[in-house]
Amino acid sequence: TTRDAQDAERHLFILSGQSNMTGGLKAGFTKTVENTFGEKNVAVVHHSKSGRGIRFWDKDYTFPDNYRFPGKGVPSERSKQQHGQEYGPLMEKVQEAFKGKPYDTVTFIWMQGESDGKRGLGDVYEKSFLRLLGRMKIDLDRKNIGFVIGRINDSFMNEPPWKAMRDVQVKLAENAYHGAWVDTDDLSEPDDGVHFPKEKYPSLGNRFAGKAIDLIQQNNKKR
Predict the structure, then answer these.
(1) CB under 8 Å to 149, separation ≥6 — which residues?
(2) What is the pLDDT of residues 156-168, one digit of tens each?
(3) CB-CB contact of 21 with 114 (8 Å)
(4) Which of 40, 60, 216, 223 is the most exposed place for a label (fewest CB within 10 A)?
(5) How would DSSP label each residue in the chain?
(6) Cα–Cα distance for residue pair 42/116, rounded to 1 Å
(7) pLDDT, tens digit, 9 for 90 and up, residues 187-212
């Protein structure tokens, strides 16, 4: 049955992560979800900070046992105070978008992990991501928040911790009822390192949006 315009479902998308979560990605993403659901029926919130590990979003983060930062030693008390620093600013933007408007679905779009992959922190990443998602569900009072993870690219495939990090991201998505992941390997050349050429970000955003739309449509079928 088609629903009339004022009865259309409303969708909130929360985009966050480190340096690859660019404005260009957001623009490509927004265009695709607006084309699908209608501009009035979507809100897109975006908050990113470059060079940040997942611990900056997770206030209850714990480092692996006996962990040392490569070349730097054990995490200091100061580094522990940074845990969860980005979560507040992200949620402020989300609450702003929520203001009195009911949303039928909330989907979290996450492009992050390069920092953790380089630092060999993949072992605790899964727990940390699930804790972050769980906290969002509580704070937004939602039973379900769908998520799409961008798998970090293949720039350091000769380093086992980088490969392990990619595997964790795929596993997270595949083990979740409301989860999906996107492949980013074809969007960059070896010279680009962990980043993508500027002109590729809109297509990465479009790719994220495609997965997010699939998740929403699948869940509608299951209702």
Answers:
(1) 110, 111, 113, 129, 169, 172, 173, 179, 180, 181, 182
(2) 999 999 999 999 9
(3) no
(4) 223
(5) -PPPGGG---EEEEEEESTTS-HHHHHHHHHHHHHHH-GGGEEEEEEE-TT--GGGT-TT--PPTT--BTTTBSPPHHHHHTTTTTHHHHHHHHHHHHTT---SEEEEEEE--HHHHHTT-GGGHHHHHHHHHHHHHHHHT-S--EEEEEPP-STTTTSHHHHHHHHHHHHHHHT-TTEEEE--GGG--GGGTTS--GGGHHHHHHHHHHHHHHHHHHHHHH-
(6) 31
(7) 998 889 999 999 999 999 999 999 99
Q: Structure tokens of 46? A: 């975006």
Contacts 24+ apart (CB under 8 A), 77-82: 82/55, 82/56
| Distance in Å from the first CA to the final CA of the chain | 14
Tens-digit pLDDT profile for residues 13-41: 999 999 999 999 999 999 999 999 999 99
Question: Is 80 exceeded by the pLDDT of residue 7?
Answer: no
Q: Are 201 and 24 in contact (CB under 8 A)?
A: yes
Angstrom CA distances, 135 to 128, 130, 176, stand at 11, 8, 16
d(CA 182, CA 204): 9
Place of tokens 């029926």: 41
Q: Tokens 């927004």, residue?
A: 30
